[in-house]
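A quick aside before the break. I want you to see a complete sequence-to-structure record at least once, exactly as it would be stored in a machine-readable document. Don't worry about memorizing anything.
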Amino acid sequence: MTVEEFKLPDVGEGVAEGELVSWLVAPGDRVEEDQPVAEVETDKALVEVPSSYDGVVEELFAEEGEMVPVGDVIISFRVDEDGDAEATAGDDAGTEAEPEPESADEPASEPVTEEPDAEPDTPSGRTFAPPSARRLARELGVDVAAVEGSGPGGRVSESDVRAHAEGDAGSADAGGADDAPEPRPAPTPTDTGSDDRKAAVSKRNGDDATASAGAAAGGPEPAGRDTTLATPATRKAARERGVDLDDVPTDETRDGEAFVTAEAVNAYADALESTAEPAPEPEPVDLDAGEAAATPADAAATAGVSATDASGSGDETVPYRGVRRTIGKQMERSKYTAPHVTHHDTAEVDALVEARAELKPKAEASDVKLTYMPFVMKAIVAGLKEYPYLNSELREDDEEIVLKGEYNLGIAVATDAGLMVPVVEDVDEKGLFELADEVNDLAARARERKLKPDEMNGGTFSITNFGAIGGEYATPIINYPETAILGLGAIEERPVVRERDGASEVVPAPTLPLSLSIDHRVVDGAVAAEFANAVMEHLENPLLLLNE
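That is the input. The structure line, written in tokens, reads:
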């Protein structure tokens, strides 16, 4: 029998870390090779991490909501030398298995003890829910696996979680003790002193000095539990306040185990601080040296902890991690690496509006929703062919500019989790209807968080459509290491000057504002303007797109 450790693999190109959104297994669960054990959010996508072993889950080393670097140990498995975990199936029942059983009949009755731990209702024990629903479930103390999903394929939504939480409040009083499910067996305590890894379940390692001192001074009595359930935010609050979660008194329970909230942690910590023995009178010191006696509030401020409870201020704290942090790092890298210059212009698109109107019935007959985006994509490709430096990548270390031979356009999509940029490959080889269908599909799956990491890689030029929400001009940030990005404003009737019968007059006409940002290390301003002119020429004369 051996214990094998499993490290977080590289689940995306160039990814250094990921947020562990949810565990799909628990200590004591038996898993097979390639079975998903966790959901990790990284590289702007939610991916499942499969097991590399046949075995029984020994220990979880990361909490849900925690950022985990690639290569860190996240889980361990008990496997025998042959990789068969059946011999360990009865360990959680509190009995010692026979060493190296030769017959499959001997342990036949013991795997029954695993049945209460099985995940219900979904294929392969998996629960399908977006990260937002899982976060809400953690906040409400709801087991997402027990929630009945109303979405496609049993997908669990936020409303499903809330309904389940409200239902639990009513059924808790209606059900008797005999009807309650058996609590999951607590995982075996491990030695956490050998390295810096953290277990997902809080364990007592001895008497807490702070709690003991508080109790001796007439403060709250520590609970002294072996296991405590809490959300990642509550665990973080406990670490910041120097409180052992197992000592925090609580009357709340989840799945038969004590459940502690952040409010209970803060109340317990405040009580300990108020009853702590006063510090001995300090010896006189030279204040000119810049040193003074520190108060508890000063010590808290030094440690980066507020001396007052910020919950009453009305402020809301939103975690800066996952997709949002990934976007932030990418934008920062781009903005402070590439010197941005933005060129603005406006295309008069009467003919484009008419061309789309003529093609819409044919597109609808083919079950295709035709927008202006495919026309813009084809016009961009025409401009990139004429001005290839805008379809390039600067590799400073190699001292070279790579002019890309492919035309892979990224389309920025606004989602609840942040901006995602799926890539449409080989735009030059596809027709308008094919592009429309692919763009619509990618955008829909981006909003549903169903994109694969490789569907957001390999872009050579990007488009962002802020006009969809009423914008006109902007200064878009380049999707580094690309060289340029084109922003689209809203197509609206605006006053334009036109020549008629030898005279100039102002008339209303549909126009499309364009905002082109370039990496000024690679592209000069004049080249950017010429590229914009080429794009506008094809948008103002859609028949030219037939050659693209």
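Two observations worth writing down. The CA atoms of residues 120 and 540 lie 58 Å apart. Residues 2-179 form a domain with the OB fold (Dihydrolipoamide Acetyltransferase, E2P) fold (CATH 2.40.50.100). We'll return to this after the break.
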